[in-house]
């Protein structure tokens, strides 16, 4: 019942998963210098690097990535700041057991620079979303969301920090629901069995 986590960078969501006791069997990065690799190593979690730039095509990279993932036979694959677009073939291979966290209240602001775009749009609330990954980038059934206020004077950095604190709360929680078999997907919508809130509304500045 283990989880393989894919990262590209700092790894603060990975850290939150480990702190929450999520059973992470391996961490794989497409960048050799990713800070999250050191976090994993310190905790005795297996690490691997599959460098995308060493492969001629996305398909070849994704095939090598899948080989590395499958060595650990995970129940679930969690993207945590993994900055590569995955091929439809890869997504299909892990259908129903591939999840991501995105720093916006999807379906608003898919893609990059979400915090700056929320500020530019004058949004009064912003947040993050844990969702199943489907072939469409930053779409897919929503498992959990957290919202935070956008405050006067916010910069992309202050807003990102407020959102990130909520990411660290809802991502481990959503993974636990998955591992406990509590998630039901019906008509593209996710329900959690039992009495669990899929929306966290934080008013913390
Ligand atoms: C997070 O904001 C996440 O939502 C986004 O990339 C960032 C990763 O941060 N997909 P970290 O590497 O987990 O610290």
Characterise the protein shown here.
It is a single chain. The chain has 205 residues and is an alpha/beta fold. Helix content is 32%, strand content 25%. The strands form two sheets. An eight-stranded mixed sheet has the order 3-2-1-4-5-6-7-10, with helices on both faces. Strands 8-9 form a two-stranded antiparallel sheet. α1 crosses α6. The longest helix is centred in the C-terminal third of the chain and has 24 residues. The N and C termini lie far apart (36 Å). 39% of the residues are buried. The mean pLDDT is 97. Bound molecules: 5-O-phosphono-beta-D-ribofuranosylamine. 5-O-phosphono-beta-D-ribofuranosylamine binds next to α1, β5 and α6.
Keywords, separated by commas or semicolons:
205 residues, alpha/beta, 10 strands, binds 5-O-phosphono-beta-D-ribofuranosylamine
Topology:
Layout: E1 3-7, H1 12-19, E2 24-29, H2 35-42, E3 46-49, H3 58-70, E4 76-79, H4 88-93, E5 98-102, H5 114-120, E6 125-132, E7 142-149, H6 156-179, E8 183-186, E9 189-192, E10 199-201
Parallel strand pairs: 1-2, 1-4, 2-3, 4-5, 7-10
Antiparallel strand pairs: 5-6, 6-7, 8-9
Helix pairs in contact: 1-6
The chain binds 5-O-phosphono-beta-D-ribofuranosylamine.
Q: What's the short version?
A:
The chain is α/β, with parallel strands linked by helices and 205 residues long.
């Amino acid at each position: 019942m283990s989880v393989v986590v894919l990262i590209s960078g700092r790894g603060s969501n990975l850290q939150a998963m480990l702190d929450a006791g999520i059973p992470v069997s391996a961490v794989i990065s497409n960048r050799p210098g990713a800070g999250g690799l050191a976090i994993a190593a310190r905790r005795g979690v297996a690490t691997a690097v599959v460098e995308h730039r060493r492969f001629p095509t996305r398909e070849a990279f994704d095939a090598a990535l899948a080989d590395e993932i499958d060595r650990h036979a995970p129940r679930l694959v969690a993207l945590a700041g993994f900055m590569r677009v995955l091929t439809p073939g890869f997504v299909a291979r892990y259908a129903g057991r591939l999840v991501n966290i995105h720093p916006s209240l999807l379906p608003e602001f898919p893609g990059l620079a979400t915090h700056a775009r929320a500020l530019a749009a004058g949004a009064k609330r912003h947040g993050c979303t844990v969702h199943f990954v489907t072939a469409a980038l930053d779409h897919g059934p929503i498992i959990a969301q957290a919202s935070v206020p956008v405050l006067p004077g916010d910069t992309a950095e202050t807003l990102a920090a407020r959102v990130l604190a909520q990411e660290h709360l809802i991502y481990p929680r959503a993974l636990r629901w998955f591992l406990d078999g509590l998630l039901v997907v019906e008509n593209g919508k996710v329900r959690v069995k039992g009495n669990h809130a899929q929306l966290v509304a934080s008013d913390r500045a």
